[in-house]
Write a structure and sequence with these properties.
Nucleotidyltransferase, domain 5, about 35% helix, 5-stranded mixed beta sheet, about 25% strand, about 260 residues, alpha/beta, globular
Length: about 260
């Protein structure tokens, strides 16, 4: 079984796979100070409640954008599972040329998404990820990563609003029935949801103009379905895009790893 771990700034997403079959998936809060022992207890318990055992795990791949967590994740894999983990980063075989001025600057999650999206569609495309940051990554028709754009994420922008405007309050991040709202909660929802939908369409439109082409647009991430439903340019939502990318990258690096 393959254990795939995507460590973001807000959440850690964990997936367990046997070949292409998903056996389980979980989302936990990112904590930079968590220890390998704590991660092990959480993993064991999450798997136990779904009738799964850790002893069947024989491969681990990790995409991590939180450097302080790398040591704990490596210890989790090596000490508790007896496996040397594969980290997504410099030196890994991605099968995708990175046309960035400094390829080492590209976040692991962005590369994973790009690989998964191109593997599925095999065409020029833009992957939009609604995470802690909202990222836009362009992959050309030849399957080369060209770069993209980064905007503040929906949730951290909303939190900044709540923290800095004393009379405003947290609301559920769903779309209201009207843009011109009649109450404060709906007005906040309108600004956040419809405002971000406009941001996404605005950046995508500028990318199309710059490229002089119309790439396919695929979205992923926690709020992808909420925001994308109100955009004009996002075509598909792929909830498991990052996990799919981790599985693909693990298979591409199998010659350097023990086989499943």
């Amino acid at each position: 079984m393959l254990l795939a771990i995507d460590v973001g700034n807000t959440n850690i997403v964990i997936g367990l796979y046997k070949e292409d079959d998903k056996l389980g998936s979980w989302r936990i809060r990112t904590n930079e100070d968590v220890t390998a022992d704590e991660l092990w207890v959480v993993l064991k318990n999450l798997m136990f409640w779904q009738g799964l055992e850790t002893k069947g795990i024989n491969g681990v791949i990790i995409a991590c954008v939180v450097p302080p967590l790398k040591a704990a994740l490596e210890e989790l894999s090596q000490f508790f599972l007896g496996i040397s983990p594969l980290f997504v980063g410099p030196g890994i075989r991605t099968g995708m040329p990175i046309r960035y001025d400094n390829p080492r600057e590209v976040g692991a999650d962005r590369i994973v998404n790009a690989v998964a999206a191109y593997e599925k569609y095999h065409r020029e495309l833009i992957a939009v990820d609604f995470g802690t940051a909202t990222t836009f990554d362009y992959i050309n028709a030849s399957g080369e990563y060209e770069g993209g754009s980064i905007a503040p994420g929906v949730k951290i922008s909303a939190e900044a609003l709540f923290h800095n405007a004393s009379k405003l309050f947290r609301v559920e991040l769903t779309a209201p029935s009207r843009v011109i709202a009649k109450d404060t909660a709906s007005a906040i929802q309108s600004g956040i949801v419809f405002g971000y939908a406009a941001l996404v369409d605005g950046i995508l439109s500028r990318m199309f103009d710059e490229l002089k082409s119309r790439p396919k647009v695929v979205a992923t991430g926690g709020l992808a379905r909420v925001i994308s439903a109100h955009t004009k340019l996002v075509e598909d939502v792929e909830d498991d895009l990052t996990m799919d990318g981790l599985k693909i990258l693990y298979k591409r690096n199998l010659p350097a790893k023990k086989k499943q």
